[in-house]
Design brief:
This protein is of the alpha/beta class and 280 residues long. The protein is 35% helix and 21% strand. The chain is built from 8 helices and 15 strands. α1 crosses α6 and α3 runs parallel beside α4. The chain is globular.
Length: 280
């Protein structure tokens, strides 16, 4: 099986590359705008590609993969930018339509928990989407477009709604990266919110492994939450990091206000993901 992975040089993409490389039954093609670097596993084929201006024969350029794991998306982490639907949504669709029309058999595309909007509690895939920011709106719109396209062209479609991730290589402004930087610098305190928000957290290596398994072993799964299925407070998460690293750093709780663009308590249902990935 040949797998092409877009967004391969990004935070999630780098971990997905390494997860896919562990499988003996796949050949991996890494796709990114950036030149190969230390993030590219040794011996792996790389294709430099601008998603906004793909060649007409892009399917052949990628080596006619059996499945595409599509992670590429620009403009993040600014979730409020209109760029997501004014510019990038059409670029995304044109790129994926070219591949599908040329014969791509299977597509796994990364979605977002922001598609659920401001709902609280456990979030199931059966809930109707209600995105409240431009990024979530654009992702949901792309999913709907791809569902029409899959019905017309017959390729298998999986839509992986990603929840909260953390780990090595995350953006400097993320909670995890800020925590690690503060600890390494010897900071006495780590400023954060009150930390009582309940979220669904997975380490990025676990996310990567689940994405590769979905792409290889459960094609055409439709919408799937990629999550832990467990509500965890932000405070408990950070306290766990502190316990692991044993830095003499106190948490300055309440330094930042709670974000207004998401509810205080929500997490994903992992029942469908667990069922799909159960050994047969």
């Amino acid at each position: 099986m040949k797998i092409a992975i877009t967004g391969a040089s990004g935070f999630v993409g780098r971990h997905v590359l390494h997860a896919a490389a562990q499988r003996k039954d796949v050949e991996v093609v890494a796709v990114s705008r950036h030149a190969p670097g230390a993030w590219l596993p040794s011996g792996m084929r790389h294709v430099a590609l601008d998603l906004a201006a793909p060649p007409p024969d892009v399917f052949a350029v990628l080596g006619q993969p059996d499945v595409l794991i599509h992670l590429a998306w620009s403009g993040l982490p600014n979730y409020q930018s209109r760029h997501h639907y004014e510019t990038h949504l059409a670029e995304q669709y044109r790129f994926l339509q070219l591949l599908a029309a040329a014969g791509l058999p299977s597509l796994l595309c990364a979605g977002t928990c922001f598609e659920y909007g401001m709902r609280s509690g456990e979030l199931h895939e059966s809930l109707p989407p209600d995105p409240r920011n431009p990024y979530g709106f654009a992702k949901d719109a792309l999913r709907r477009e791809l569902e029409f396209l899959a019905a017309d062209l017959g390729f298998k479609l999986s839509w992986a709604r990603l929840f909260y991730m953390y780990g090595e290589g995350q953006a400097p402004g993320s909670l995890y990266s800020q925590f690690i930087a503060a600890g390494i610098s010897g900071a006495a305190e780590f400023p954060m919110s009150g930390g009582e928000q309940l979220r669904d957290f997975l380490h990025v290596t676990d996310v990567a492994q689940r994405l590769v398994r979905l792409a290889c072993d459960a094609p055409g799964a439709g919408i799937v939450n990629v999550c832990s299925g467990r509500p965890t407070s932000v405070r408990a998460l950070v306290e766990g990091w502190l316990e692991v690293h044993r830095w003499p750093m106190k948490l300055a709780l309440g330094h930042y206000p709670y974000p207004a663009y998401e509810p205080m308590a929500f997490w994903g249902s992992s029942a469908k993901l667990t069922r799909l990935l159960e050994p047969t």
